[in-house]
Amino acid sequence: MSVKVAPSILAADFANLQSEVQMLNQSEADFIHVDIMDGIFVPNISFGIPVVEAIKRHAEKPLDVHLMIQHPDQYLQAFRDAGAQIISVHIEACPHLHRTIQAIHSLGAKAGVAINPHTPVEALSEILKDIDLVCMMSVNPGFGGQKFIENTYHKVRKLKEMILDSGSRAEIEIDGGVNSENASKLIELGADILVAGSFVFKSNKPLKTISELKG
Fold it and tell me: Where is substrate annotated to bind (predicted)?
């Protein structure tokens, strides 16, 4: 089974958002990755609920919404209503993570937990069996186009072992700096989903780029 690909709409041309979404509809992409930033949890602001609603109106792929925000619990219902089918929250932003995961599931969405590059995968040990996805940041969150952090390989290997040992069904999603040079190694080590932003949207042939990432 080939790896799943989730192009990050943050890297799209926002003046032509509808056509960018329609391009993804025609592609082999599995999800549309939507990064939500509040300027507090991460040093950047992206977009909010109205833009997610606009994307959903045209999207034929499930929306994979990544909340890089403080106090995500306050917005779970709103993002679910806007069309999110996967909602990932940061472990660093959730003091009551288990309750947050339960809340996401109660809304009928899949629940993911994102971890920053400095956060050890062992921090997930008590929640791993309750989640559908681990969004592993392979760059420091906040800006697109950053260089891939090499220590991610070690973390993917370790996390895959934890998932297998625990009997968890969680998928491993890699977010940041993914390209043709590191994709195959990430897949080999256990990655299930690759998020790619600039690598897809700055490609001269994005449909081909997505297809090649899937292997």
Answer: 8, 66, 142-145, 175-177, 197-198
